[in-house]
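Design review, sub-item: ligand-bound model
Attendees: FS, YL, KQ
YL presented the inputs for the nicotinamide-adenine-dinucleotide complex:
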Amino acid sequence: MSFFSAQKVLCVLYPDPLTGFPPNYSREDIPALTHYPDGQTMPTPSSIDFTGGHLLGSVSGGLGLESFLTTRGHRFVVTSDKDGPDSVFEKELTDADVVISQPFWPGYLTAERIAKAPNLKLAITAGIGSDHVDLQSAIDRDITVCEVTWCNSISVAEHAVMQMLALVRDFIPQYGWVVRSGWNIADAVSRSYDIEGMDVGVVASGRIGLAFLKRMKPFDVNLHYTDRHRLSPEVERELGLTFHENVESLVSVCDAVSIHCPLHPETEHMFNDDLIGKMKRGSYIVNTARGKICDRDAIVRALENGQLAGYAGDVWFPQPPPNDHPWRTMPNHAMTPHTSGTSLSAQARYAAGVREILECWLDGRPIRDEYLIVQGGGLAGTGIHSYTEGNATGGSEEAARFKQS
Ligand code: NAD
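KQ shared the predicted structure:
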């Protein structure tokens, strides 16, 4: 029995593979995990209608929600056509009760779009990071915003470690020599260093930032962090962490910095010309948090003039980035599309988490506090801990300029 009668659930997911939906997978299964590192349980829906390890995050995968929703009498509309006034998303939004989107191919919920959606009561992020929703408008309209906290935090920490090593060791050009049938070792190593002994820092030591620090510890680097919440003395001691009161202090001593704070008004364009100018010449930045935490053109300038030795990450602004976005072609980068949090392993967790949230919502039961960003006209749960009020969606309409080649 549902608390709500027939609801329209509108879901934005990235397009299916250009090569067709996978007929089979490279692995038989994914590890069965029961808890996250702090003891929080994995998502607990009453059941699931999908196979973990399969592609769930694109349109045909539909997060495995279709039969669950339709057998309960709800409407489920899935689209990847999300940008511009003529998009399916914008048209279907006018009578939607619930929107599900994800950060990889975000259905931006701007103030204008929220104003066109009078029935909208719940915006679920299938993943972590709800900056694609104008949180101020959600607060003002009393829309609940929630995400699947923890679902892909470790996935991202693994990717950030990989990208930091890729930058410092200069992996990408070396791979290039191999695939071009070359063997010029002097060229291949002319920008390659060991990370051992370097000073490595994180901006934010939340779930991902702390997991990144733990994974970097065995590399025998000097670890630093800044966050608006200080870690316990035990954790600082165990990992040998140096705490910095502010980001300026952190970047001035680090060789490599990994960014792990959410995007909100306090962090938008944090890495601008001024802050990058305070870094050691030849520093590296890895940003798997959100593209707009960095000033796009300041990053390009710093790579071109050598203030930065390398930049990597998987987050861009907007998403998808226009085909002429300068991060596609700037020197010494090791960017991926926004993939770190949507491995097949992560998809199983966030699909199950979205189902848990929908079951709670439709049955009139509370959503886990950890999942909440906005509720009852204010920040709530993780939103209070990690965000500030306001809007960070400005400029997202530029995503309409992307054309699939
Ligand atoms: P979390 O809530 O556990 O941690 C966020 C941390 O940021 C908190 O400790 C908070 O105090 C800190 N913080 C907030 N504002 C700050 C500021 N101005 N200065 C310093 N610290 C600040 O979240 P998490 O699971 O670690 O995720 C962090 C972010 O990573 C998400 O909000 C999202 O933007 C991004 N993310 C990216 C992907 C991906 O696929 N690339 C996946 C998941 C999350």
